[in-house]
Design a protein that fits this description.
By secondary structure, the chain is mainly alpha-helical. The chain folds into four domains: about 55-180, P-loop containing nucleotide triphosphate hydrolases (Rossmann fold, 3-Layer(aba) Sandwich); about 185-255, no CATH class; about 260-375; about 505-665. The chain is built from 30 helices and nine strands. The two termini are about 55 Å apart. It comes from Streptomyces brevispora.
Length: about 675
């Protein structure tokens, strides 16, 4: 975990790819547009770097590595639980370059291009196509497009790893790319995870009966990662003098089914105040005793329980009450159960066996999040929301979690409330079984729903910093819809601009979307922000610039024509001046930038003369603000004038055109 510029970022084992059974915290504030915030590509790379550190190379990894290096494509096969998906991500991480980004392809989701579309692949991209769970129909449809996809990957110097469904059909021309991944030695996998968790080598190399029993069964690698994380947590909570054998025994006990034990405990606690305390400790495990006490009292008020009528000094103190529920406060004042992961079993019990309590827990969580005090930290708030979200997701109630996040974001009166909504959606997006559903709901919110309160800001943050990590195309589309709303936030426009700033491919896609039909006034506002000349002339890949691509030229001309036709000159004048200033410093591409402006004005049917005159007037105004001095800018104005004359079919320059309006305010 690292903290920069007031922003908490959690990476490594506790990132969205965490394989343990402990809590996962992803802290994303409601206002983090500072320069210290990592880009979505960096965020994804941090996750991949952790996977690379913990991976034990499985049999077949070397062959897959060579195939990917030689051809740019490899198709991984293997039984479920062999680590094939993890291996795929690590293979792509090994090809990290300054250009391109890691992306997971989801061709059948809203906002994703088809696999055969050449615009799907950016220069140097690292692409994962995980079809390990695909049915026969989806696998067949994907195979039909692989030839076009591999061609685009080769042309863009990108890398593609496909995880195929085990036992799926593969054509003869694709067999050469297939590599089978076998599960590595389970003991080695456990040791690697323990070493990465900081467990001393001399501890885990000793024979241990608990470990031997655990590894005897054929287990998927994720369960081994879970066990290693439990050992880590057992070590952190262990008393002085305990060693590896005790840590493993504690971890194994935490994996046991303790539901009957918890049910018996709850049955003995007939008093509502004790049950409220039990729930509060389970939901706020590790919090300070003062927080747990406040939370228990707040839960009683939330569910409408009557207050305790006993005189204050006749009531049981907190230490006695905690002892009755197998919990206690340590020397630091923080409350924990005596047994590892006991809190998880208690949460499960109350959620499953007291369904009428669920709605109250949502209300209670929102009230806890809104509390302030020295012990009410952001980590505590995020952990509480993550635990509540975990129960919704565990029991298949994703829609309930989404509704709760929408309600929190729509009614929040503080930053903490907005952060809780972000955290709830982040948990949904990080759950493999429900991520696709949450992406779909977020699309509907961004594109079609009327948003209340500050919920739009929540969606901006989730798109820019969560969805964009693996699915930048989907994030860009959702931000586009948010930015073009009548009540669109400045945050959405800024986030959209930041995304395309980091990717020529995304900027190209956005320009094509803006120009695919007659741009609206909102679209034109977006175009003026993202269609900046400096980005269009910035070379990428093999030294080529976006402005040199015919499809981009067509999109830019379409958008500039609509700007000149629909918007008043004071609106577009600053952007035109920046465009003209950029053309001064663009070298041989400067003339191309002017051609795009002139081409746009030339297509202003019935208003060509007025558009040409306005462009020329803008160029004269731009001379006064040119960074390099007016003399160089004047040469650009002269070149623009010559191009205007040429567009009008005039063989030699005539008197410069005059603006149609003496005030120069309307075209």
């Amino acid at each position: 975990m690292s903290t920069r510029s007031g922003t908490t970022w959690v990476t490594g084992t506790t990132g969205p790819l965490h394989n343990g059974i402990g809590d996962m915290y992803v802290t994303i504030g409601a206002d983090q547009r500072g320069s210290g915030r990592p880009s979505f590509t960096r965020f994804a790379d941090d996750q991949l770097a952790w996977l690379r550190r913990v991976l034990v190379a499985p049999p077949g990894m070397g062959k897959a590595r060579s195939e990917l290096a030689d051809t740019g494509t490899v198709i991984l096969d293997g039984v479920p639980g062999s680590g094939r998906t993890c291996a795929a991500r690590v293979l792509l991480r090994e090809h990290h370059k300054d250009m391109g980004a890691f992306r997971e392809l989801l061709p059948d989701e809203e906002g994703e291009l088809p696999l055969a579309d050449p615009e799907l692949v950016g220069a140097g991209d690292r692409l994962l196509l995980d079809l390990s769970a695909a049915d026969t129909v989806r696998w067949a449809a994907s195979r039909a497009d692989l030839s076009a996809l591999r061609k685009a990957v080769h042309e863009k110097h990108a890398h593609l790893v496909i995880v195929m469904p085990h036992g799926g059909t593969l054509e003869s021309d694709l067999q050469q790319y297939r590599v089978e991944i076998l599960q590595p030695c389970r003991a080695w996998v456990l040791r690697r995870h323990l070493r990465m968790h900081g467990v001393p080598t001399e501890q885990y190399l000793r024979p241990d009966p608990t470990v031997t029993e655990f590894l005897y069964e054929q287990r998927p690698l994720r369960e081994i990662a879970d066990f290693a994380d439990l050992v880590r947590r057992a070590r952190e909570a262990a008393a002085s003098g305990e060693e590896f054998t005790q840590w493993c025994a504690t971890a194994r006990k935490a994996q046991a089914d303790r539901r009957e034990e918890v049910a018996t405990l709850v049955a003995t606690l007939r008093d509502s105040s004790q049950r409220a305390l039990l729930i509060s400790v389970a939901m706020l495990h590790g919090a300070h005793a003062d927080v747990v006490h406040r939370a228990a009292q707040l839960l009683l008020r939330t569910v409408g329980s009557p207050p305790d009528d006993l005189p204050l000094l006749q009531r049981k103190d907190l230490a006695e009450r905690l002892g009755e529920i197998s919990a206690g406060a340590g020397p630091d004042g923080h409350v924990r159960f005596r047994d590892l992961d006991y809190d998880s079993t208690i949460r499960t019990h109350f959620w499953d066996h007291m369904p009428d309590l669920r709605q109250h827990l949502g209300t209670w969580t929102a009230r806890i999040v809104a509390l302030s005090g020295p012990s009410i930290t952001q980590e505590l708030r995020d952990g509480l929301v993550a635990k509540l979200a975990g129960e919704y997701l565990r029991t298949g109630r994703a829609e309930g979690l989404a509704s709760l996040a929408e309600d929190w974001g729509s009614t929040a009166t503080s930053r903490a409330g907005l952060e809780a909504a972000v955290q709830a959606l982040t948990c949904g997006l990080g759950d493999p079984a429900h991520a696709r559903t949450f992406r779909g709901w977020i699309y509907q919110w961004c594109a079609n729903k009327q948003l209340k309160g500050e919920f739009a800001r929540v969606l901006v943050q989730v798109c820019a910093d969560v969805i964009a990590a693996d699915h930048p195309d989907q994030a860009m589309l959702r931000l586009y819809y948010l930015a073009r709303r009548d009540d669109g936030t400045a945050d959405a426009m800024q986030a959209l601009s930041d995304m395309v700033q980091s990717s020529h491919r995304l900027r190209r896609r956005l320009l094509h979307r803006l120009a695919r039909c007659e741009p609206s006034q909102a679209d034109l506002g977006i175009f003026l922000r993202v269609g900046v000349a400096e980005a269009l002339t910035d070379p990428y890949d093999n030294g080529r610039a976006l402005a040199e691509e015919e499809s981009v030229q067509s999109s830019v001309i379409t958008c500039w024509r609509a700007v000149l036709n629909k918007l008043p000159r004071p609106t577009w004048q600053p952007y035109t001046e920046r465009w003209l200033h950029a053309s001064v410093d663009a070298g041989d591409k400067g003339g191309l930038l002017l051609d795009l402006l002139v081409g746009a004005a030339d297509r202003c049917e019935g208003r060509r003369g007025a558009a040409f005159a306005a462009l020329y007037a803008s160029a004269r105004d731009a001379e006064r603000t040119a960074p390099g001095g007016s003399s160089r800018a004047a040469l650009t104005t002269d070149l623009l004038f010559q191009k205007i004359c040429s567009a009008q079919g005039l063989s030699r320059p005539i008197t410069p055109p005059q603006a149609a309006s003496p005030r120069g305010t309307v075209l």
